[in-house]
Write a structure and sequence with these properties.
Strand content: 15-25%
Number of helices: 16
Number of strands: 30
Largest sheet: 7 strands, mixed
Bound molecules: dioxothiomolybdenum(VI) ion
């Protein structure tokens, strides 16, 4: 897990804050970065899942004999033959617990549900064996839409969040309003579609198992696997040096991987399982669809009098992850009264899970369009309206925001975009080719969760360091940004820091999710580095032979591999010299870090932003093109502006995708997803994204954590979807309240 490729960066000044290129970039572009499926231990077998072609009912027969008779097939695992697990997969394990689909019985609960696992000497034999199973079904009518699912009141939404938030007198707010807007919004089911499919290579050695798999939550996953297999957590090792995308779907344990691990144990040989693209549309999570209603009360001055946001969120027939969409309204606009609430609806689908800005993405899409409609109803410019309803403190709680950079995001974004002079009415602008032009905006907001994390920093005799944490780099640049944080704490250049990560035996780096990884693992690395430097300072300042002797109370500063006396820069000594004289081979700094609970109690913590969009619409054909996107974001201290800009771009592109492209289309007769591939599940390509600009608003947030770092991964989606939909209205005069927006909605 060591990255020793030389860096090509020229650097000046301190380490953090520099736009270093990715430490793993050369390995990736030269194909030397190995992903889970690149592993081929000796004697390895291949597993392939056979999946259900119906969405509800039961499997009545499988031709196991035909599959077993196929040359190369070693074993076929079905509900009749699946060896037992140490933990009931129907019983959820917190945290992030899900009911796991592992051939419990012959019941089919969604299309693409694994109904058997075929293990063979080759991938071809396993694939062919799976095709020979010839499943027969008793099929029931699938429940696929808002009208046929079972409704229920959820005890929680998302990963254990409250299903409801309320303050003030909402009904009085509506009763006293000059006008009340009531609007319905629909968002579709979306699938993560990481470039790297879900994969595992499992190899047992007695009651120890080695798992090569892409994983966003190493320690948590080890604990879960250990429970399912009845072994201690330390007997599970996960290697996950590189992930080809995760987006939330690789933070959760899934059934196919457990079956492959089980097969490896039973057959006493390593087993590899790689899901096909189509097989990922079911057992590994997705963003569930929502049907949202927003009611907004407005007075004569354009102030909100009440805000009611309800989301009916789809989930499976057998588990309870609900897209917490209505929560997007609870922390943003200054309404004196608010009710946000959720209802669940059970459909015959795989269980949804966290997917890139879970809740905020779908909820902000609806909220930002509703706010735009409210501005229009008041005859106000959408930016003025948002500033008019700007929350100085967190609505409801009255807690101060840990910093207040949103106004700056609005101002800088509007300036760079050229928002001033935007006509208020729709259909006012055309380009030289006669296309309708529209400008829209949306507010971006994302909370700053923080996961407990651990790290180790070892200063070595030669003055270099080894830093370690079991982090996960899904492509966001963790290898680089985390090493920068550690290097800064150690007073070293990042090139002098060897960084080990992506391996579960290292100190627990927490979860790479919730846009919290850089802050969480970074704080641990910072503290471990500081701990090592503190120990080194002790050595030096207590040693009469050191030029730093006696500087104890004055203190020393670590910089460029030397300790300097704070009051006298001429007195300094290198790390190597201090260690050599002390006769120590190394100094090991450790840390367990989490957020200060008092700060978390006293402050509302969010990353902020504002997104401005320009679209052009063909007036005859309704074809929509996003021609410009400008986002201004404030997310605390920026460790690496190159990587952060890239994260914002990724989020904004996902916003385009949400607004105009992505949708899993279900055949309501069969309950099957008709576009379970990257040809027909639309995502934007280069030609769909002509111009992107992300402005990094400087922000000093001393409360969020000791390194001042907030999340940048998911916020870019929020705001962007609404900005595009609002720009479409501004261009065409048509309000579309169903995503993705299609050309027939515009010309219909
Ligand atoms: Mo995520 S949905 O925080 O990987």
């Amino acid at each position: 897990m060591s990255l020793d490729a030389p860096s090509t960066n020229a650097r000046y000044g301190s380490n953090a804050g520099q736009p270093l290129t990715r430490r793993d970039g050369v390995l990736k572009v030269t194909g030397r970065a190995t992903y889970a499926a690149d592993n081929h231990p000796d004697g390895m077998l291949y597993a392939v899942t056979a999946v259900s072609r119906i969405a509800r009912g039961r499997v009545t027969s499988l031709d196991v004999e035909a599959a077993k008779a196929h040359p190369g097939v070693v074993e076929v695992m079905t509900p009749a033959s699946r060896p037992p697990l140490a933990h009931d997969p129907d019983e959820k394990m917190p945290p992030f617990g899900f009911r796991i689909e592992v051939l419990q019985d012959s019941t089919v609960r969604y299309a693409n549900q694994p109904i058997a696992l075929v293990i063979a000497e080759t991938l071809e034999a396993a694939t062919e064996g799976a095709a020979l199973l010839n499943p027969q079904y008793d099929a029931d009518e699938p429940r696929t839409g808002i009208d046929d699912g079972l409704r229920f009141d959820p005890p929680a939404v998302g990963v254990g969040g409250p299903p409801k938030a309320a303050f003030g007198d909402v009904e009085a707010g509506f009763a006293n309003a000059a006008q009340v807007l009531e609007r319905d919004y629909v968002t579709p089911a979306q699938y993560h579609n990481a470039m790297e499919p879900h994969a595992v290579v499992a190899e047992w050695d007695g009651d120890h198992v080695m798992l090569d798999m892409p994983n966003q939550a190493l320690a948590m996953s080890c604990a879960s696997y250990a429970t399912y297999f009845g072994i201690p957590p330390e007997n599970v090792t996960i290697r996950s040096p590189f992930l080809g995308g995760g987006f939330g779907s690789k933070a959760i344990i899934n059934g196919p991987q457990i079956l492959a691990i089980l097969a490896a144990r039973t057959l006493k040989r390593p087993v590899k399982l790689v899901l096909s693209r189509a097989q990922m549309y079911g057992p590994v999570g997705h963003r569930g669809g929502t049907w949202q209603k927003l009611r907004i009360g407005l007075d004569n001055e354009g102030h909100l009098t009440a805000l009611h946001h309800k989301s009916i969120s789809a989930t499976s027939s057998f588990d309870d992850f609900l897209e917490p969409a209505a929560n997007a309204s609870t922390h943003l606009y200054a309404s004196p009264a608010l009710l946000s609430e959720h209802e669940g609806i059970r459909l015959d689908t795989g269980t949804p899970g966290p997917m890139r800005a879970p809740g905020e993405a779908s909820g902000s899409a609806a909220l930002e369009v509703a706010i735009d409609e409210a501005a229009d109803a008041c005859g106000m410019d959408p930016l003025d309206f948002r500033l008019h309803n700007y929350a100085e403190t967190e609505p409801g709680s009255g807690r101060p925001f840990s910093s207040k950079a949103l106004r700056e995001c609005y101002a800088e974004g509007a300036k760079r975009f050229g928002w001033a002079g935007r006509p208020l009415a729709s259909r006012q602008m055309r380009d030289e080719n006669g296309f309708l032009v529209g400008w829209g905006m949306g507010t971006a907001l994302f909370p700053c969760p923080h996961f407990p994390a651990e790290a180790r920093a070892t200063l070595r005799a030669d003055g270099t360091a080894l830093v370690e944490t079991a982090g996960a780099d899904m492509g966001q640049g963790a290898w680089t940004a985390l090493a920068q944080i550690a290097a800064e704490a150690l007073g070293l250049d990042p090139d002098q820091v060897e960084f080990h990560s992506g391996l579960s035996t290292l100190p627990d780096g927490g979860v790479a999710g919730g846009s919290a990884h850089t802050a969480s693992a970074g704080l641990a690395l910072n503290n471990a580095g500081k701990d090592a430097i503190a120990q080194l300072s002790e050595l030096a300042t207590n040693d009469p032979a050191s030029p730093l002797f006696g500087a104890g109370n004055i203190g020393v500063e670590a910089r460029a591999g030397r300790l300097y006396r704070r009051d006298d820069e001429t007195r300094s000594e290198s790390y190597a010299e201090i260690l050599a004289r002390a006769g120590q081979r190394e100094i090991v700094g450790t840390a367990k870090a989490s957020r200060d609970p008092a700060a978390a109690e006293a402050h509302a913590m969010f990353s902020h932003g504002a997104v401005f969009a320009e679209v052009k619409v063909d007036p005859d054909l309704g074809q929509i093109r996003v021609t410009r996107l400008v986002g201004a974001f404030a997310a605390g201290r920026i460790i690496n502006p190159r990587l952060v800009e890239s994260q914002y771009f990724g989020g904004m592109i996902w916003g385009v995708s949400f607004a105009l492209h992505e949708e899993a289309i279900v055949d309501h007769r069969t309950g099957r997803i008709m576009n379970a591939d990257l040809a027909e599940y639309h995502v934007p390509i280069n030609a769909d994204i002509p111009s992107l600009e992300a402005i990094l608003i400087p922000e000093n947030d001393p409360f969020v954590n000791a390194i001042g770092v907030k999340g940048v991964g998911e916020i870019g989606i929020t705001g962007t979807v609404g900005a595009i939909a609002n720009a479409i209205w501004h261009a065409t005069g048509v309000r579309v309240r169903k995503f993705p927006v299609r050309l027939e909605d515009i010309i219909g």
